Amino acid sequence: MKALVGLATAVVFSAVALAGATAATDAEQKVYVLSQDDGVLSVIDTGADEIVGKIKIAGKPASFTISPAFGEAFATLPDSGEIAVVDLRLQRLARRLKIGGQPFGIASAGDRLFVGDWSANSVSIVDRQSGDIIGKISAGRSPAHLVVTRDGSRLYVADREANSVAVIDTRRLEVLKEIPVGRAPFALALSLDEKQLVVANVQAATLSIVDTSNLQIVSSPTTRAMPYGVAMTHDGAEILVSNQQGGSISVFDAQTHAPRAEIKVGRYPEGLVALKNGSKAYVANWFSASVSVLDLKTNTEIKRIICPEGPRMVLAGATER
Amino acid sequence: MPIPFRLLLAFAALSACAGIASAHGPTPQKVEEKIAISVPPDAVWKLIKDFGSIGAWHPSVASAKSEGGNASGATRTFTLKSGGGELVESLDDYQEKDMSYGYRLATENDEAFPASFYSDTIQVVPASGGSEVVWGSRFYRADTTNEPPENKNDEAAIKATEDFIKAGLAGIKAKAEGKG
Question: Taking CA atoms, which of A2, A82, A281, B172 is between 20 and 30 Å from A271?
Fold first, then answer.
């Protein structure tokens, strides 16, 4: 009987995972932290809030994305023009894809990776297995982070030096629109329903909140100085913004766009992510080489986990089975 | 201070021998320096609390002017004794009760300073025997492509930042202790 239930659960899990969503409960969910200076992807068990694994990625990995369906993480190596592919189940490097250029921001959908080239001002579509470049699209200047819709059809790119967000049709390889935002957009977050895109403009100290149905900016709330990272809670109720200069996280109401709380974290925080049930969030404190664990019910920092040097990005993964 | 720089050179040489690429992509660098000062924190804070006061205590600064006081967005514009023209910095985060402020490079000028961007934080903290000033910087080299020339690479940016911060801290100490 137990085996049957287990089997049924496994089937449900795989089906959901293939649909691009994740069925992990928070107890099972892992959080991954990429440390650029030490070249390590650390695995945090979110039950214990401790690092339970470290995967060495030779070089200076800048940014990464996770494919829940394949159980892989893809980290960009701007110095060597490569993408390091990590098998998250085995917790080891699976392969390195040589794509050339200066890859920085990365997103994945299905078999495809979308990779920005910081100095060539373009985005490449890359086969996740072979590393072959399937297509290339010119995009603004200095593409920073990028996000793609789950079906892989539409890509949003923060063009840092162009002060805009490029909206790209990935099938026609066309830029649909360049949305002017604030000065120096760097990080992006797409709501789970994909209806709202949040852009953090570092130099302007604003967010640009975009309605993805008409690509109009609906609101531009002011943030603290140098908003370097942005995330949305899974229920879409809150926007979390890391304030690099003040060493804090601001919690915004995603409906009213008003700030609700500010939580002190480590120094020079960058990337952050909320767990799927919204109970906790994890913040990469770049200068402090630590990860802050936030309780989102009380809006307090409950733990600080020491990690390898140069953490810039954190993502939540699916369960490991 | 010759020791850290020598270490840096040794590391650079080692990297070259090991065949590790010396050019780095858009990888931010960090420097943090501290100095102990034998006067109470309040007195040290009074000396540096005005964002525009850098010309009064930093020995490498030739001239400085400022606008906007200590409000967010205030700027200070200064020249260095080493030349290269003006640097403009803007104030981001001012915490009177923590005796701390954070600011950034507002206008890039790699003739004067070999970084394309930096954001710094300076803070006065109580310490036994007086106080300590902690100055941290996060920065990118002047040329962020994969093939920067020697004067615009990570090593150049790290050295310039270390030198500037150390000189500034020594200047604060000298002034605060009445020797400047």
Answer: A82
- Of the options 2.30.30.90, 2.130.10.10, 3.40.50.11030, 3.40.50.10310, the CATH number for the domain spanning A58-180: 2.130.10.10
Q: Read off the pLDDT of each residue in A180-190 and give the average, rounded to a whole number.
A: 96
Contact A261, A250 (CB under 8 A): yes
- B72 to chain A: nearest residue by CA? A225
Pick from B121, B139, B147, B158 the residue to mutate for testing the A interface (most A CBs within 10 Å): B121
Q: 3-state class of A233 per DSSP?
A: coil
CA distance A5 to chain B (A): 48
**The two three-digit tokens of residue A250, written as one number:** 């601001």
Contact B70/A at CB under 8 A: no
Report CA-CA distances (Å) from A235 to A274, A280, B58: 10, 13, 50
CA pair distance A222, A227, nearest whole angstrom? 10
> What pTM was estimated for this model as a whole?
0.86
Tokens of B96: 């009177």
C-beta separation of A137 from A103 below 8 A? no
Q: Is the pLDDT of residue B19 over 70?
A: no
Rounded mean pLDDT, B93-109: 94
- Distance (Å, rounded) from C-alpha B130 to C-alpha B46? 14
Indicate whether this complex's ipTM tops 0.90: no
Query: Inter-chain contact B30–A244, Cβ cutoff 8 Å?
Result: no
How far is the C-alpha of A214 from the C-alpha of A241, rounded, in Å? 24
Domain range for B139? 29-176
For residue B93, which amino acid is it? D
* Mean pLDDT computed over every residue of chain B: 88
Mean pLDDT of A12-20: 37
Residue B1 lies in a domain: no
B84 — contact with chain A (CB < 8 Å)?
no
Beta sheet of A280-285, edge-to-edge order? A269-274, A280-285, A290-295, A300-306
According to CATH, what is the number of the domain A184-321?
A: 2.130.10.10
Taking CB atoms and an 8 Å limit, are A286 and B138 in contact across chains?
A: yes
The structural domains of chain A, with segments of one domain joined by +, span 58-180, 184-321
Chain A residues closer than 8 Å to B75 by CB: none
How far A78 CA sits from the closest chain B CA (Å)?
5
CATH number at residue B128: 3.30.530.20
Residue B116 within a domain: yes
Average pLDDT over residues A229-235: 95
Tell me the per-residue pLDDT of A121-158, one tens digit each, with 9 for 90 and over: 999 999 999 999 999 999 878 899 999 999 999 999 99
**Residue B59 in this model has a pLDDT that exceeds 50:** yes
